[in-house]
Automatic annotation (TrEMBL):
InterPro entries: ABM_dom, Dimeric_a/b-barrel, Jasmonate_Hydroxylase-like
GO molecular function: monooxygenase activity
PANTHER family membership: ABM DOMAIN-CONTAINING PROTEIN, BLL5343 PROTEIN
Taxonomic lineage from the root: Bacteria, Bacillati, Actinomycetota, Actinomycetes, Kitasatosporales
ABM domain ranges (all copies): 10-83
Protein name per the record: Antibiotic biosynthesis monooxygenase
Organism of derivation: Streptomyces osmaniensis
A UniProt-annotated Pfam family: ABM
Keyword annotations: Monooxygenase, Oxidoreductase
Length: 108
């Protein structure tokens, strides 16, 4: 189930990746990051998608820029970023945007 539509404005960080063959420790670190980000005041949630061809997309939702900055500068997160560049990612892009419009649909 995708993250609900929140009342704007809020922020999204869209992290798109292609991973390398070397994935030792990735799952454990990813699980730790998912637990750690939940402690950030203003964190709203996260959506993930992975294609069979290896393209991964993670979208993090944050109430304000301060919450996003706290996550970006978290020491444990920064260490995971370094390891990702060294081992786990062939390439990645990060897009940060302010959401100005948001709505959802749920078949009832």
């Amino acid at each position: 189930m995708p993250i609900e539509a929140y009342e704007p404005p809020y922020y999204v960080a869209v992290f798109t990746t292609v991973r390398t063959q070397e994935q030792s420790g990735y799952c454990e670190t990813n699980a730790r990051m998912e637990e750690l980000v939940k402690d950030i005041p203003g964190y709203l949630g996260m959506d993930h998608a992975q294609t069979p061809g290896g393209l991964g997309i993670t979208v993090g939702y944050f109430r304000d820029a301060e919450a996003l900055t706290e996550w970006r500068t978290n020491a444990e997160h920064r260490a995971a970023q370094e390891r990702g560049r060294a081992e786990w990612y062939q390439s990645y892009t990060l897009h940060v945007a302010k959401v100005e419009r948001s709505h959802g649909f749920l078949r009832g």
